[in-house]
Specification:
Length: about 375
């Protein structure tokens, strides 16, 4: 039987759907790993995390999967999060086919930082998202009104902005980073394939079958990837060492960013101090508190992130952040939001020389000495 006929039979019989559901069920094993916290809150957030990954996966591999007719969607936001998602970011994602040419057009806006990265691979396949081309707003040619066009192609255009593609490029990731969402205007962006001129075809059995297959693999593999990361951080509790920068880039990190990842665990009467002797000159920096699954905590209702705009520096240019269960009455307090432990992430964006933070755990009663 021909492959297309076999796939059609699997869809008609429900076999495709059953296989999809079976893999989703198996994904739950990542939440039950022996080293992961087994309290009810962490388990509940873990299974919710899988449901969030599924929402992202269905957009990525089914609803917005047609590279001939790309459109932007958000792969991380307030209620769907992956791999220490940045609360100060607006993420946008579009599927590509590196053998075609595309145009992104729009208005720059006033966000603090804007970058475009073409990638290949994916968590659903090889567990990587390797950069194939990159440009940030500082390199863009803009008109007097801040408007621009960016060509995505294998060969550079004669003039104008260009983002390099390889034949294997399959996605565009846009990061818009806000210092202050209340006062900054996001970039307005549109993407289109340049040489299409057709209309999208109705959903086929093959597209449904492959989309479900890739979506389920995305959920399972993404959950496994960052559960592995969290397990590794547990070996150095309440520390914030530099991350493996090559690994961060291999899974889709921004090349202008220097990353730190760590694990925290605090008793009710303890606080974690994160200190930087002197904040370096940079485009942006922030520090965020995550749960065990490397989802940023609920920044809609809790202060779990501070950045270059919102944090208070010392008179000497140094920085002290305080993580604790209760408000200690000090500047730069970060909330645990009811969590006993989790992960955390710090990033310098565009720093010529990153300055590594130090950490120490103190009793809450001792914090009065810092006032």
């Amino acid at each position: 039987m021909a492959s297309d006929d076999r796939i059609e039979q699997q869809v008609r019989s429900g076999e495709s759907w059953a296989a999809f559901c079976d893999q989703l069920k198996r994904s739950g094993e990542q939440i039950l790993r022996a080293e992961a916290p087994a309290d009810a809150q962490t388990r509940a957030e873990g299974f919710r995390y899988l449901s969030r990954l599924l929402r992202i996966a269905l957009d990525m591999h089914l609803e917005f999967a047609d590279a001939d007719f790309p459109g932007f969607f958000s792969p991380s936001h307030e209620t769907a999060k992956i791999g220490a998602d940045n609360p100060d970011n607006r993420y946008q994602y579009a599927r590509l086919n590196g053998r075609h040419d595309y145009r992104v057009s729009g208005q720059r806006g006033s966000v603090s930082y804007l970058s475009f990265g073409a990638q290949k691979g994916g968590y659903e396949s090889d567990g990587k998202m390797t950069q194939t081309g990159f440009i940030d707003a500082g390199q863009l040619q803009l008109d007097a009104d801040g408007r621009f066009e960016l060509i995505l192609s294998q060969q550079p255009p004669a003039t104008g902005n260009w983002l390099r593609l390889e034949p294997e490029s399959n996605a565009l990731v846009v990061r818009q980073t806000f210092l202050d969402r209340a006062s900054e205007q996001p970039a307005q962006l549109h993407i289109e394939r340049l040489d299409s001129g057709q209309k999208p075809q109705p959903l086929s059995a093959e597209r449904l079958h492959l989309g479900l297959q890739r979506a389920a693999s995305f959920v399972e593999n993404t959950a496994a990837l960052f559960a592995d990361w969290a397990q590794g951080y547990q070996a150095l509790p309440n520390q914030l060492p530099p991350a493996d920068q090559a690994l961060c880039q291999a899974v889709g990190g921004d090349p202008n960013i220097f990353y730190y990842h760590g694990y925290w665990a605090l008793a009710e009467d303890e606080a974690l101090l994160i200190e930087v002797e002197r904040v370096p000159d940079c485009d942006f920096w922030n520090l965020q508190i995550n749960n065990y699954w490397m989802e940023s905590l609920d920044y809609r209702h809790h202060r779990i992130c501070l950045n270059k705009h919102s944090a208070h520096l010392g008179s000497d240019g140094g920085l002290r952040l305080v993580l604790s269960h209760r408000d200690p009455g000090l500047a730069n307090w970060l909330e645990t939001a009811g969590h006993a432990d989790g992960t955390l992430c710090m990033r310098w964006v565009g720093a010529e020389r990153p300055v590594h933070p130090t950490t120490r755990v103190v009793k809450l009663d001792h914090l009065k000495e810092l006032q």
